[in-house]
Amino acid sequence: MAEIVLNGITWAHSRGITPLVAAAQRFSELHPGITINWKKRSLQEFADYPLEKLTDHYDLLIIDHPWVGCAAATGTVLPLDEYLPAAYLEDQAGNSTGDSHESYFYEGHQWALAIDAATPAASYRADLFSKHHTPVPQTWQQVIALAKQGRVAIPAIPIDLLMNFYMFSIAHGETPFQQLEQVISHHTGIKALETMHSLYSLIDKQFFNCNPIAVAELMSTTNDYWYCPFAYCYSNYARKGYAKYLLTYTELVLFNKKEHLRSTIGGTGIAVSSSTKHKEAAVQFASWICSGEIQRTLYVQHGGQPGHRSAWLDEPANAITNNFFKSLLHTMDSGYMRPRYNGYLHFQDHAGQPLQDYLLNKISAEQALEKMNTIYRQRANS
Predict the structure, then answer these.
(1) Measured in whole angstroms, how far is the alpha carbon of residue 5 from the centre of its chain?
(2) N or C, where is the chain less crowded by C-beta within 10 Å?
(3) Which residues pair with 323 in a beta bridge?
């Protein structure tokens, strides 16, 4: 029988590539004759390059959930509900971490399985807080106070600013994308922007070139910064042997002394190209690697951040990650899911720049909001 070779594309971080390579190796051992090769691309390429252009070249794709509207419109990946047993999908839905599983369900079909789960969360250097006898921030006011001391690190590239704009809009009482002509009401949008400015005006300008990985690397290799109030979480930096100085992850602070901030969920899904010549093998691998048993063992043991809830509750998984999963489960469960309509990614790719321009005092809050609304209206009816 001819050997089956599956090619997959993922993103270039240990969380994104290492567990896939390890799982592919084991799957090939269990299924002689099937080889799975994984290629990685940068986090920026992962966000920018159209996935639909990759489906002709790869059998397996690691995707971001806002892309599923495009998937539904183009049919470039398989509707997995037509290939997987109902019982399996029920298990995935019942063991979702937050809205991770649901985020890949769109227009009646499951376009990917939640292989990975993440959301912005707070992280800190417990050793430095202990050394300086300083309490870890629990409220927004305490975050501002610590930032004034120069101890706060935070990613501030456009895409992360946009995710946090959603978070602060919600904190001020309004969910984004409820209207066709504007992302958020003018009143709430301005309040969200001004709240962001109160923090970002205090941080080192280097962070306007930093993504969450860069911030985590800086915090785990130097003693310059003690705390990050919100950045997409990476369990790798909470693991001995991976990070020089361990990060401790915790839930987001209280805002206005009432409720914890609600961040914007990320994570990734595994999809199968509709162009693959080996549908059965590709779907089999995707379902196997996303099963609870593999997610909480092989996947998490090799640096993965599972989408399956049983892994987040698993004692051994938490033991090797400084209780990362249990500490952030509430934050994941309360996270906001972005829009997924076909055309949303145009907004996501461009609307963060006016935010950054405002926070760098290049334009006013009103100008930033209007630029965002203009970008939104370009595709709002897609």
Answers:
(1) 29
(2) N
(3) none
Question: What are the b/e assignments for 307-331, b being 16+ CB within 10 Å?
Answer: bbbbbbebeebbebbbbbbebbbeb
DSSP for 251-303 reads PPPEETTTEE---B---EEEEEBTT-S-HHHHHHHHHHHTSHHHIIIIIHHTT
Evaluate whether 216 touches 247 at the Cβ level (below 8 Å): yes
**What would the pLDDT profile of 247-263 be if each residue is shown by its tens digit?**
999 999 999 878 999 99
Nearest CA-CA partner of 332 in 305, 296, 368:
305
Q: What is the DSSP string of 52-102?
A: GGTTTT-SEEEE-GGGHHHHHHH--B--GGGTS-HHHHHHHHHTBSTTTTG
| CA quadruple 41, 46, 51, 56: dihedral, nearest 10 | 10
* The token pair that represents 268 in the structure block: 């990734």
Identify any residues that bridge with 240 across adjacent strands, giving them in sequence order.
243
Q: How far is the C-alpha of 323 from the C-alpha of 314, rounded, in Å?
A: 10
For 60: left if phi > 0, alpha if psi spans -120 to 50, otherwise beta; the answer is beta
pTM: 0.95
Q: Which amino acid is at 257?
A: K
Q: How far apart are the first and last CA of the chain?
A: 46
Q: What is the pLDDT of residues 32-60, one digit of tens each?
A: 999 999 999 876 676 566 777 888 899 99
Query: Hey, is 40 helix, strand or coil?
Result: strand
379 Cβ contact list (under 8 Å, min separation 6): 343, 344, 346, 347
